[in-house]
Amino acid sequence: xxxxxxxxxxxxxxxxxxxxxxxxxxxxxxxxxxxxxxxxxxxxxxxxxxxxxxxxxxxxxxxxxxxxxxxxxxxxxxxxxxxxxxxxxxxxxxxxxxxxxxxxxxxxxxxxxxxxxxxxxxxxxxxxxxxxxxxxxxxxxxxxxxxxxxxxxxxxxxxxxxxxxxxxxxxxxxxxxxxxxxxxxxxxxxxxxxxxxxxxxxxxxxxxxxxxxxxxxxxxxxxxxxxxxxxxxxxxxxxxxxxxxxxxxxxxxxxxxxxxxxxxxxxxxxxxxxxxxxxxxxxxxxxxxxxxxxxxxxxxxxxxxxxxxxxxxxxxxxxxxxxxxxxxxxxxxxxx
Length: 336
Hints:
Layout lengths: L1 H61 L8 E7 L9 E8 L4 E7 L4 E4 L2 E4 H8 L1 H12 L5 E5 L1 H11 L3 E3 L11 E2 L2 E2 L1 E3 L2 H9 L6 H17 L18 H7 L1 H9 L3 E2 L3 H17 L5 E4 L2 E3 L5 E3 L3 H8 L5 H14 L1
C-alpha cells in the first residue's frame, strides 16, 4: 500500500509539469492567431470601407442632371376598336432646361423607309415600331431614342398612373360632346376611355386638327402633375401632391407601365435616368408644351413637312441658336 501511494505521488508529480507546458504554447498560438486574423480582417475592412466610399461617390455623381438625360420618345396608341385611328406623338424630354414638348404626328404624313415613300400609318402597319421610329427620326431630323406602343388596356393603365385629364372637347363621339360656356367650349374632366376616344376619333375635320389635339391634350395631362399640380385621379392624390406622388412611386409606376406596353426601353435605361424623371415631376415649374407637326400642301394634292419648321424645332430644343437659324435661311436664299 505504501508502495502504491509512492507510485501515485510520483505519477502526479510527473503529470503536473506536462500539463502546464502544454497550456502555455497553446495560449501563445491563440494570441498569434488572433493577431494574424485581426490584421487580415482589418485589411479587408479598410478595403471594403474604401469601396463603399467610392460607390457612394459614384452614386452621387449620377444624380446630377446633364445633357445625357435629354431624350425623345415615340409614342403610339393602337386602339382595340378598329373604327378608331392610331395616335402618334413624339415626346421630347429636357430636364436640363425643365422643358417637355409633346408633338402630335399625323398618320397621313409621308415618310421614307428603306428607300420607299409611305405614310406614317403604312410604315407602322407594314414594318413595325422600330421602322417607324427610324422614319420619323429622319423626317424630323431628330434623334429618337426609344418607342412605346400601347393598346387600349396599356394606354388606360399608363394614364391612370398620372390621373384624368381636364380638356376641352372639340368633337362629338362616343362619350364625347362639346360643352358650350360663356367663353366657348368649356374644359371637362375626361375618364380614361373618353381620353382614348379624344385621341383616336375619326370625327375630326382633318389629321391636322387631331394631331394638334394629341400633342396639346397630353401636355395638359402632364402639366396637371408636374411641379406638384393637382391630379384628380382614382389614386386619391390631394392638391399640390401630384409631382411628389409620382416621384415617390416612380419605381412602382415604371413597373406597371413596363408590363402594360411594348417598348424598347430597358430597366437599365430607366435606372440611368430615373433621377432626371423624378426631378422633372417633383421640382419643375415649366409647363409642358403641346402642338401638332405643321405641313404644307404639294401641287399633286399630297402634303409634306413645313419647310421652315425643322429649324423652329431645333430652336425649341435648343439645338441651334437664333443666329445660326438666320444664317441657314440666308444661305438658302443665296443659293436660290
